[in-house]
Amino acid sequence: MLDLSNKIRVGLAAVILIPVLLYWGFASSPNETERENVSLLHGMDYFVETAVIKEWDAEGKLLRTLHTDQLEHYPNLKLSTLDKPESISIRKDYSKVKITSDTGTVLDDNNQTNLAGNVIVNDNPDSTSATILSTEQLTIYPNRDYAETDEPVNIVSSQSILKGVGMDIDFNTRILNLHSRVEGSHDNAK
């Protein structure tokens, strides 16, 4: 074996170890970079606790008020998530529709809102002629005042009870279509 002096041994060790230590200290593995990029792509850029959002028409009349315990915005997904949302919409005849659920998502362009978990639609919530619709999932298209679901639906009013699977509703015309397995009862007594 060659007899090397201590200075040469230290020099060789430094030449061998310095590039390895620099790589180890400054470089990241491909998996680490991938995880960081995924979190950036799907990360939240802001949140609002106890949010109240109001929407007005061109003449300044209130159209809709949304209350939510927490709103989280995800810019790359172009949506916001809602925790316990409650929306009150005011129609042209000044009647109201109140919609609540456990969770929701709203697309950034406000063309679609998806509600899930204990979805309740209360038509005319302040009157004795209120109609209450309940389901587990509802997709709302606010610009069209239209909603739909493929889930089971229960509808209760002062004179009738209806059940069905799948539904679409036009909130302006108040026309509701149940798609299948429809059953119900109606009381005409006054």
Automatic annotation (TrEMBL):
Gene3D superfamilies: Lipopolysaccharide (LPS) transport protein A like domain (2.60.450.10). It holds the Pfam family LptC. It comes from the Bacteria. Keywords: Cell inner membrane, Cell membrane, Membrane, Transmembrane, Transmembrane helix. PANTHER family: LIPOPOLYSACCHARIDE EXPORT SYSTEM PROTEIN LPTC. This is LPS export ABC transporter periplasmic protein LptC. It comes from Neptuniibacter pectenicola. The gene is lptC.
